[in-house]
């Protein structure tokens, strides 16, 4: 699954630089994650780095974007091949 940022986001700016795919960016009110770029850090790290640094724990899995490990790896390979 891709990750998402919930309304609990406090715009602390710590998640954006941690994303190896550039999937996190400032939204209108809170940070947002581009599901087309989010691989949950598969291919880069063992765990999603944004979740590790978030001080308010507001980055859960997006239930509308179910992807298994193989799909996330394929997305990673597509992103990094460019």
Overview of this structure, please?
The chain is an alpha+beta fold and 82 residues long. It has a single domain (16-81), classed as Alpha-Beta Plaits. 22% of the residues lie in helices and 7% in strands. It has 2 helices and 2 strands, in the order ββαα. A two-stranded antiparallel sheet has the order 1-2. It is globular, with a radius of gyration of 12 Å. The relative contact order is 0.28. The model has no long low-confidence stretch (mean pLDDT 96). It holds the Pfam family Fer4_7. Keywords: 4Fe-4S, Electron transport, Iron, Iron-sulfur, Metal-binding, Repeat, Transport. InterPro entries: 4Fe4S_Fe-S-bd, 4Fe4S_Fe_S_CS, PSI_iron-sulfur_center, YfhL-like. This is Ferredoxin.
Which SSEs are present, and which pair or pack?
Blueprint: E1 24-26, E2 31-33, H1 49-53, H2 69-81
Antiparallel strand pairs: 1-2
CATH class: Alpha Beta
CATH topology: Alpha-Beta Plaits
Overall domain count: 1
Class per helix and strand makeup: alpha+beta
User: What oligomeric state do the depicted chains represent?
Assistant: single chain
Describe the sheet with the most strands. 2 strands, antiparallel
CATH architecture: 2-Layer Sandwich
| Adjacency order of strands in the biggest sheet | 1-2
Radius of gyration: 12 Å
**Shape estimate:** globular
Number of strands: 2
- The CA-CA distance between the termini, in Å, is 22 Å
Low-pLDDT residue intervals, each spanning 5 or more residues:
none
Order of helices and strands: EEHH
Percentage of residues in helical conformation: 10-25%
Domain 4Fe-4S ferredoxin-type: 1-29, 31-64
Keywords: 4Fe-4S, Electron transport, Iron, Iron-sulfur, Metal-binding, Repeat, Transport
InterPro entries: 4Fe4S_Fe-S-bd, 4Fe4S_Fe_S_CS, PSI_iron-sulfur_center, YfhL-like
Organism: Halomonas cerina
